[in-house]
Specification:
The structure holds 2 protein chains of 2 kinds. Chain A has 6 helices and no strands. The radius of gyration of chain A is 25 Å and the shape is flat. By secondary structure, chain B is an all-alpha fold. Chain B has one domain. Helix content of chain B is about 70%, strand content about 0%. In chain B, strand 1 and strand 2 form a beta hairpin. In chain B, helix 10 crosses helix 11. The chains are: A mainly alpha, B mainly alpha. Chains A and B meet through helix 1, helix 2, helix 3, helix 4 and helix 5 of A and helix 8, strand 2, helix 9, helix 16 and helix 17 of B. Chain B: This is C4-dicarboxylate ABC transporter permease. Chain B: It comes from Plastoroseomonas hellenica. Chain B: Keywords: Membrane, Transmembrane, Transmembrane helix. Chain B: InterPro entries: DUF112_TM (IPR002823).
């Protein structure tokens, strides 16, 4: 045992980058054939292929690099729940509509992040939603998704 | 001259003036909010500007851009939490001054040096941009291709963890720009049968996702440190003695900021850090640095605000973004159907001079607002993140949905947010990806046109001195440092 730790490489990240480039490269073979009359010079597939090759080369360089930063801290439970709240926003919106979903998001995520003043949270959510309604629905005349519930209630 | 006066006269339009005042106020407010940078704000506001005239939209975005850099310095000085990354150098000396009870003087110097830096760079912009545009009239596709490649190569130095990672992000941006129908052959690329993707990736939801949503997800993984505000009376105008002491730093910062800003991709943060280092190098009071130096506030503040005007030079004259924020502004202009470049100076000179005028006005306005309302702005940083970030997400959703009223855009925004979060977590910066996305089409189109001009021979670039020069500079910038290291290793000490 020499006791000297080998430098940590960026191999994992480089592998993911290379996989993205390889997928992109493979994807270019799914493009339709360029009509013969337009087949002069760089076609539709050549440029993306060139970029994929550049990315592959850069990924190889990255794999040889020493990792400079410490490994990122694991994502805490709050982070995962925030991800879930973002992912769940669309299905909730489909059911209750955009504005109520926004209100729910502000209150739920605020609480999740540690806000204990419920009245403040409710007021903040309501104020924000009211401002969005005023600007977007009343001024810009944008139709926001009403959701299944909104359609049932408002027809 | 008529166009210049016409541009200045647009400030007489109450609506344009309102946009400048609103943009300046909003810029200071968001600049003071830690985590919400000028680029995040402009990305969030982009959808709201689509309904405005190009002049009003540009005046608004330009004012936000100018003021956000200054706003960042308020919280950097008062709570040691730079509201904008470009204010991180200001925090080094500014917070030390605040701890010594000189917050008011530090804030005053920050406002004055920011305004001087900003005004110097706008004056340079007024004279340099038309000259650059005139020179660019002789540019053909090979020169534009070389310029775009040079701009992308500058992403390597944009900051972040690694040059290679920055270049990878830029290349992925270019690859994303190829999504949609190829303009020369009409072939659909990477759209996987999704009709919405045939028109290419929409800038707005991607920008909002990469900057705002990813930042919120990042914040969700951090443990907050409660901020404490330092008591002070108000911002003070620097005394004549203070001003004389910092005079040299302000001019050094203004020069460095304008120059770095004018280089494609490099923006206010780089300018501020270099400005701080150079201010220290040339200071006669080096011993004060690290213990609360007023020059250490003046230099970087002048630099980061000077970078704003500087970065608008290549953006407007050549269509190549000078920074991440101007890449977003450029995307906003393209969404509005305005294509920046040399022709703008002949086709829409009033638009350009109106932008210059609004930026000048914004620089003067934030000086007045900063001096008078710094105490209020500093309190903005005390808005709890538990209320702030869920609100940012909600605004992101409406910002992505609004322009096309399409749920698909919200999905794209969420996906971009996750990509941005993973990027940040693994040491990639989202800014080069945006540069790649904005410049991607230009790179491909000009390369194809160049190859047609050169009869499909790359050797044709050798006959175009400007293009060749730019490509050589790019190669030196990319490979020079590595070659130098190799040479040094080979030379015995």
């Amino acid at each position: 045992m020499s006791g000297v730790a080998s430098p940590r490489r960026e191999a994992g990240v480089a592998l993911v980058v290379a996989a993205v480039a390889a997928l992109g490269f493979a994807g270019t073979f799914t493009f339709d054939e360029v009509p013969p009359a337009l087949r002069e010079g760089l076609g539709a597939a050549e440029f993306p292929r060139l970029i994929c090759i550049v990315i592959l080369a850069l990924a190889a360089l990255l794999a040889l690099q020493e990792k400079r930063s410490e490994a990122a801290e694991p994502v805490p439970a709050t982070g995962w729940w925030t991800f879930a709240a973002c992912a769940g926003f669309l299905p909730v919106m489909a059911v209750i509509g955009m504005l109520p979903a926004m209100f729910l998001f502000v209150v739920a995520v605020g609480r999740l992040w540690g806000e204990r003043r419920i009245a403040l949270l409710l007021a903040s959510g309501a104020g924000l939603v009211a401002a969005i309604w005023l600007v977007f629905v009343r001024v810009f005349a944008i139709t926001l998704p009403a959701g299944w519930l909104g359609e049932q209630l408002l027809g | 001259m008529d166009a210049f006066l016409g541009g200045m006269a647009t400030l007489g339009d109450p609506f344009i003036l309102l946009m400048v005042v609103a943009g300046t106020l909003l810029g200071i407010v968001v600049g003071a909010l830690p985590g919400i940078s000028g680029s995040t704000t402009i990305a969030l506001l982009l959808p709201f500007t689509i309904g405005l005239s190009p002049i009003a939209a540009l005046a608004f975005m330009g004012s936000v851009y100018c003021a956000a850099n200054f706003g960042g310095s308020i919280t950097a000085i008062m709570v040691n939490a730079p509201g904008d990354p470009s204010a991180s150098a200001t925090a080094i000396e500014g917070y030390k001054l605040a701890q010594k009870g000189q917050a008011g003087v530090a804030l005053g110097m920050s406002a004055v040096s920011s305004a001087i830096g900003g005004i110097v760079s706008v004056v340079v912009l007024i004279f340099a941009a038309p000259l650059l545009a005139r020179a660019a009239y002789s540019f053909g596709p090979p020169e534009y291709f070389a310029l775009a490649i040079f701009g992308l190569s500058m992403c390597a130095a944009i900051g972040g963890e690694s040059r290679v990672k920055n270049l990878i992000a830029a290349a992925i941006g270019v690859l994303l720009a190829t999504v949609g129908i190829d303009l020369t052959s009409g072939i659909d690329r990477f759209s996987f049968g999704i009709t919405e993707l045939s028109d290419g990736i929409d800038f707005v939801p991607v920008l909002i996702g990469l900057f705002a949503v990813s930042e919120m997800l990042e914040q969700a993984t951090l443990r907050g440190v409660p901020a404490t505000i330092i008591a002070y009376t108000s911002a003070k105008l620097p005394s004549w003695a203070d001003f004389r002491k910092c005079n040299r730093s302000i001019w050094i910062g203004s020069g460095i900021g304008t120059f770095i800003g004018a280089l494609p991709a490099l923006g206010a943060t780089t300018a501020a850090l270099v400005g701080y280092a150079e201010t220290r190098r040339w200071s006669k009071h080096k011993h004060e640095f690290g213990h609360g130096s007023l020059e250490g506030v003046a230099g970087p503040e002048a630099a980061n605000n000077a970078a704003v005007g500087g970065s608008m030079v290549p953006t407007l004259a050549l269509g190549v973004p000078g920074s991440a924020t101007t890449a977003i502004i450029l995307a906003g202009l393209m969404v509005q159907g305005v294509r920046p470049g040399p022709h703008l100076f002949t086709e829409q000179p009033t638009l350009l001079y109106a932008v210059f005028a609004s930026m000048l006005a914004a620089n003067l306005l934030y000086l007045v607002m900063g001096m008078g309302m710094a105490k209020i702005f500093a309190r903005i940083s005390l808005i709890p993140p538990t209320l702030l970030w869920p609100g940012v997400f909600v605004l992101s959703v409406i910002g992505a949905y609004g322009p096309n009223q399409a749920i698909g855009d919200v999905v794209v925004m969420l996906a971009a947010g996750v990509v941005g979060f993973l990027f940040r977590r693994h040491g990639f910066s989202p800014a080069p990806l945006i540069m790649g996305l904005v410049l991607g089409r230009m790179v491909e189109e000009t390369l194809k046109q160049s190859m047609i001009i050169f009869d499909q021979s790359v050797a044709g670039f050798a006959g175009r001195p400007i293009a060749l020069g730019l490509l050589l500079v790019t190669a030196i910038g990319l490979f020079g440092p590595a070659l130098l290291r190799l040479v040094r290793r080979g030379v015995p000490a």
